[in-house]
Amino acid sequence: MVRIGIVAGEASGDLLGSHLIRALKQQRPDIEFVGIAGPKMMNEGAQSLFPIERLSIRGYLEVLKHLWGLLKLRRQLLNHFIENRLDLFIGIDAPDFNFWLERKLKNKGVKTIHYVSPSIWAWRKNRIKKIKHAVTEILALFPFEPALYRSAGISVSYVGHPLADMLPLVPDVAGARETLKLDSSVLIVAMLPGSRQSEVQQHADLFVQAAKLIHAVRPDAKFLVPLITRETRRIFELVIFNEPEKLPLELLFGHAHDAMEAADVVIVASGTATLEAALLKKPMVITYRMPKLSWQLLKRMRLQPYVGLPNVLAERFVVPELLQDDATPEKLAEAALNLVNDKNKLLEIQQEFTQIHHSLRQNTAEKAAAAVLAYLK
Hints:
The protein is α/β, with parallel strands linked by helices. The protein has two domains: 2-160 and 362-373, Rossmann fold, CATH 3.40.50; 173-360, Glycogen Phosphorylase B (Rossmann fold, 3-Layer(aba) Sandwich). 50% of the residues lie in helices and 18% in strands. The chain has 18 helices and 13 strands. It has helices at 11-27, 39-43, 60-65, 67-83, 95-107, 127-134, 146-150, 162-166, 173-179, 197-217, 230-241, 256-262, 272-279, 292-301, 309-314, 329-341, 343-360, 364-373, and strands at residues 2-8, 31-37, 47-51, 88-92, 112-115, 137-140, 156-158, 187-192, 221-227, 249-253, 265-269, 284-288, 321-323. Helix 10 packs across helix 11 and helix 10 (197-217) crosses helix 16.
């Protein structure tokens, strides 16, 4: 039996991990996976020693609140891996957690693979020196990343992004609207405030107030807000409950993909959802708010003018970004309506996002599995 340690830190890592585990097991059914896994990875047979939710924390202040527990968990996990032989370790994203584990395990002679390059191209570029000590191989999702690692003498494989494999090049707007029982003639605005409770707390009122302004200009507009947990839904419901004006706003339990595919325009918190919106060829307004101190610290370390993945991949502002103090209801509403009304801009966005889709479509799971299997021979 081959034993691989594997750690994912949140839902997007769980998705990546599940595809990788499935592809590896098709080649090597004798592989056993153990570590920290989400429901998708566990469905593929991974054993999770701790709940993945323990790692799903974002922002400096938020991490500080849970720091002692995280450090204790990480030490327990390392001890388990040392006491129970590993043939290989795969860290999926969660760089601050996984690089420490990878360095410790690499020093013990374990080959370490890190799946998803941290955004050294966006901030904290000096991390690449620490990465070199921690990893045997990086699996990079984006085509501009390998050159950064090779220049530092780090082995890297470009594997593309699994979402590009999963999603068709041409979205089925009519089918998505039929699934959600939406009128084909109305303006559909998908609003994605984030997957974490802290993100929804920051964005719920902002999104509701922006929806009110859009609705005042476009009375035919309908707003879809997909939320993935009862807790995030409750946060959003409280904001709506306190509003005297009733909006044509529908909360969905999940269905983020359907909501974006059905939409004419998307208002989305910066994160993986922006990439999915781009692969669905959707005009979008990217936004983000966080606690002020966290923002001040992050802002000082930024290396690029853009933070949204579609703009990073295009290396220009294809779609607007309204962050922190610029994230106001008025600016969000104006930017969304401007996109809907500008036919030339809509065509430009569609063409740019189609090019990005082609560049990311690489049969990711198979390429990642091949890179991993090379270390098991």
